[in-house]
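Here is the promised in-class demo. Please do not try to memorize the tokens; focus on the logic of going from shape to residues.
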């Protein structure tokens, strides 16, 4: 986990420096105007990497000790085998992606698709959340 924290910290610093250099370069080239799309894009990418690194620091602190993957002498069998519950058969994420594609397309173009996209989005979200409460895979 320490390697992930270090890597994300380096990425964050890189994007902060890129945003600063990009802003100064653009201001020097185009008569002092700031190009906000690139500056904010790179700056917010640095913020995202900082937030993920900070979360990993908190998780590392809260687990009270190093995991086997952090030690050089650690074996695969020493880690916790339960990493979470995943549904590999689920088709709901694909439908959710399609609903989001329709919604974003309708915002950019034909606005009559907005209610259809929102309706499909709600159906797909409810289906994905409740897929383990009904049918063959209910608990």
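The designed amino acids, position by position:
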């Amino acid at each position: 986990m320490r390697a992930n924290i270090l890597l994300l910290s380096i990425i964050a610093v890189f994007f902060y420096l890129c945003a600063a250099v990009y802003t100064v370069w653009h201001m020097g080239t185009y008569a002092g105007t700031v190009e906000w799309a690139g500056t904010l894009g790179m700056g917010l990418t640095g913020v995202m990497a900082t937030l993920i690194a900070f979360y990993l620091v908190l998780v590392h602190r809260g687990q009270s000790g190093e995991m086997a993957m952090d030690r050089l002498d650690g074996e695969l069998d020493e880690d916790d085998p339960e990493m979470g519950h995943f549904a590999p058969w689920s088709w709901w994420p694909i439908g959710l992606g399609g609903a989001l594609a329709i919604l974003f397309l309708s915002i950019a173009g034909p606005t009559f698709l907005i209610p259809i996209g929102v309706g499909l989005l709600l159906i797909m979200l409810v289906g994905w959340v409740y897929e383990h409460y009904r049918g063959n895979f209910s608990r």
